[in-house]
Amino acid sequence: MTRKERMIAFFEDRPVDYAPHCVFWHEPPERRFGEAGAKAQMEFHRKSKNSFLKIIADLKINCDFPLQAPSDWNAFKGFDPNEKNFQINLDLIKRIVDLNQGEDLVYWTLFTPWNHARAMTGDDAIINAHTYSGRQEFDDAMKRIEETVIRQAEAFFDAGVDAMYYASRGGELNRFHEEDYDRYVRKYDLGVLDYINTRSKYNIFHMCGDNLRMDKFIDYECAAINWDVHGNKLSLQQGRAMFGKKVMGGLDNLGAIANGTAEETARETRELLESYGKQGIIVGGDCTLAAYTPMENILAMADVCDTF
Fold this sequence. Notes:
It is built from 11 helices and 7 strands. The chain is of the alpha/beta class.
């Protein structure tokens, strides 16, 4: 099987020869966009032997205005197809898709609307206060952010992306009351998810953070689901039973693979596959790897998956 054939078989519930796997990290700013960014991400993809190509660039919605009070959200007017950050990321996607030449399934890291709102304020205290405020200005801004994310996704699919790695935030139990979470986080998570599912049947949903409201994600329709099994004390086996979906992850992204040896990484990977099996799992990290992660550790993980 080629990597692409393996991933399609995986998602279509057909047997796979080896367990798919994928890990990723953030490139430094000087190797994040343009020709240098495309080459860097393709270089990492090929060296790591990942089973699919996941583009990670942390697209942020432009915010060149203060967001101190809920009323400040009136300054955000919504999606602008000519906005510089969007165009830089769209250019990166086109370059990578061109370099990939259809060899792999290509994923873009798409952030949920509340996750974007959090990044726009740059301050957890501010975004939490605005979410709790119940102000109409914030309500209206969240609708515009949802539309912005959908329009971004539309453009990225049109540029050749095969699926989204859709990353959430805001689901921590200690962050919001349930009604606020439902109104400002879950509602807009699902609005975007509904759209991207019309464009691809291979989308992966990532629940970012520790101590999450795991039961709130049971009805999120996605091809596979990824969470921090260590920070949420929910194993992949338990998650498989809870969500009834294919899973991704299982390795502590700050554990052996980042801070241990190749032998320790191989042992952790082998133990994971022995306990779970190679069907219905994409081996990967709980979240993004540290940029200092040794490539020999990544390859040790890949080699176990490719021979298990």
